[in-house]
Amino acid sequence: MSIAEAWDIPAARPRLVPPSPPRAPESMTALQRMAKMRESAIGTWGQRAYEEDIIRGHFLFNSSFILNTPDAIRHVLVDNYENYSRTPAGFRVLRPMLGDGLLIAEGRAWKHQRRTLAPAFTPRAVSTLIPHMVAVTDETVENLKRISNGPVDLRETMQRMTLEIAGRTMFSFGMERHGATLRDFVMEYAEKLARPHFLDLVLPRGWPAPRDFARARFRKRWTQFIGMLMAERRAAGKQEGAPARDLFDLMNAARDPETGEAFSEAQLGDQVATMILAGHETTATALFWALYMLALDPVAQEQLAAEARQVSADGEADLDRLKFTRAVVDETMRLYPPAFLIARAASGPDVITDIPIKKHDVILIAPWLLHRHEKLWRDPNAFVPERFLAPAPPPDRFAYLPFGVGARVCIGAHFALVEATLVLARIIAAFRVRLLEKDPVMPLGVVTTQPDRSPVFEITPR
Q: Where is heme bound in this sequence (predicted)?
């Protein structure tokens, strides 16, 4: 039985197929694909990419390979991951915002950071941060009640809420004074500097591309802002002997278990920037898509509401009992993975499923493609949360990659899943969510899987 056949789950309701961009024509030239990539990488893939195991192409002077088989993906991301590093374009786009933090670091620097940060993101450590998540979510619900029965921009609401959660879990203080500035930084970078240009793609990492100078000026202002937030948090102090109250406490006290080394001030700043940005933008995007699909699928919305209201009626939210809510989150990240593309360049020769790989060849693992691949999923384009519930089998670990896999799997995966599940349950328990417009919202692949616009919702108190 194929993997897709294993997912033949009887549907208790009509299956929603949410909108997605048209597949690119197979005749599209390399230059056309490069131009399209600036608008949205998702729009550069044709039907073959959703059907075939491995697609070989050319990227400038090297070969490129799209991998859609779990065995090949395991080889690149687990078995021989040290042979594959970020591409120059990926490094250029991410470094001005994230510096040399965990998401960017490689080799020994990455291993030091990963070992040092790991204790701050264990389930036990994350559980101490849940009160921050719940408090911000409940405040958001109360604010939404004041504007209920009218039009609301839920995308902006989710961005503001997850930013507030990021601020409180990181620093124990709200982002009322700094949130607008932080959002301005994010929007400025996304609109002006995050989309790769031709020279970003072709020049080696050590050669500055024209946009790198503007990125360097941006980074100087950005690191000053992060430094100001850290200084404000330090001024608030910490009681001697008191347990850690936020991520800053945990990261400031963290030591490499092998060397005893702490983070330098610059390293700590890069980690703070990484956690705030990665922690709020990707979760906000996932929550937006979840709310969008629940608005399109009222039956699933009512099922989630019933579960959430039952759990909350019994006292504190029990994450283990929010099974359907978690399944909605999982299915949302299957259809709209926040990180839609993992691009790696081979540091040396290799062999992947009998295919020879040369140094500098480009390896593409696209969760957007993988999660909709016709050999790996039954009804791959349909919204079916039940595929993540028993008795359905769990997905292959290398066919479902919302947080990556292997040594470089996202360190904040548990944090993000807890936050998204709690937030979605509390919002849908409080409101019915409906779209006020019929035009479809299309996903764009630009850094994250973003909506092409913010649709207008209506929320009604339950």
A: 410
Asked whether residue 410 is marked as a ligand-binding residue, the answer is yes
Q: Which amino acid is at 203?
A: L
pLDDT in tens, 267-325: 899 999 888 887 788 999 999 999 999 999 999 999 999 999 988 755 455 788 999 99
Reference 54, options 63, 43, 62; nearest CA is 63
Place of tokens 């790996």: 376
Return the CATH fold of 3-461: Cytochrome p450 (1.10.630)
Q: Which among 429, 355, 352, 435 has a CA at the least distance from the CA of 398? A: 352
Task: Look up residue 316 and give its two tokens.
Answer: 């504190």
CB 428 within 8 A of CB 294: yes
Of 331, 345, 260, the closest CA to residue 300 belongs to 331
Burial class from Cβ neighbours inside 10 Å (0-12, 13-18, 19+) for residue 452 reads middle
Which residues, other chains included, contact 204 with Cβ-Cβ below 8 Å and sequence gap of 6+? 88
Give alpha helix (H) positions in 172-264. 179-192, 198-202, 210-236, 247-253
Residue keyed to tokens 């940060």: 117
Amino acid sitting at position 48: R
- Give the torsion sign (CA, 14, 443, 403, 58): positive
